[in-house]
Automatic annotation (TrEMBL):
<dbReference type="Pfam" id="PF01142">
    <property type="entry name" value="TruD"/>
</dbReference>
<dbReference type="GO" id="GO:0003723">
    <property type="term" value="F:RNA binding"/>
</dbReference>
<dbReference type="GO" id="GO:0009982">
    <property type="term" value="F:pseudouridine synthase activity"/>
</dbReference>
<dbReference type="GO" id="GO:0005634">
    <property type="term" value="C:nucleus"/>
</dbReference>
<dbReference type="GO" id="GO:0001522">
    <property type="term" value="P:pseudouridine synthesis"/>
</dbReference>
<dbReference type="InterPro" id="IPR011760">
    <property type="entry name" value="PsdUridine_synth_TruD_insert"/>
</dbReference>
<dbReference type="InterPro" id="IPR020103">
    <property type="entry name" value="PsdUridine_synth_cat_dom_sf"/>
</dbReference>
<protein>
    <submittedName>
        <fullName>TRUD domain-containing protein</fullName>
    </submittedName>
</protein>
<comment type="similarity">
    <text>Belongs to the pseudouridine synthase TruD family.</text>
</comment>
<dbReference type="InterPro" id="IPR001656">
    <property type="entry name" value="PsdUridine_synth_TruD"/>
</dbReference>
<keyword id="KW-0819">tRNA processing</keyword>
<feature type="domain" description="TRUD">
    <location>
        <begin position="1"/>
        <end position="145"/>
    </location>
</feature>
<dbReference type="InterPro" id="IPR042214">
    <property type="entry name" value="TruD_catalytic"/>
</dbReference>
<dbReference type="GO" id="GO:0008033">
    <property type="term" value="P:tRNA processing"/>
</dbReference>
<keyword id="KW-0413">Isomerase</keyword>
Amino acid sequence: MLAPVCRLASKCGEALKLLETSNASASATVERALLSALAKCPAGHKAAILALHRDMRTMYIHAYQSLVFNSIVSGRKKTFGLAVLAGDLDAAGDVLTDANATIDRVCLPLPSVADTKMPQNEIAQCYEEIAASTPFKVPNLPSLK
């Protein structure tokens, strides 16, 4: 059971040594931090992420949020066009009504915390499908900041 973990630690240590001797060593701070943490604790993926500077972790979280958001917007446009759906939200998180429902008022949330208000329509299912297909879980994102 420990053999794969030891092999990973050895490979991380070897990669770290190669990194230190390469020309990229000075600019590879992210790689160095990740490899150092994984060499010490190969199963500590969260610890490796937490070894990064907070600004860098935040950038990775934002990149994930952007990936999810762009996937949702693209899928929505492809499936529903510019139609406003029952249950769509505005910028304040309120459900749009027929009286004020125009596509330029529709806002889609960024996944950030477990209690992020989601639209009450087919789009909420899209968020759930994307979340289920990735190793990241929305309630865990704040703990990485």
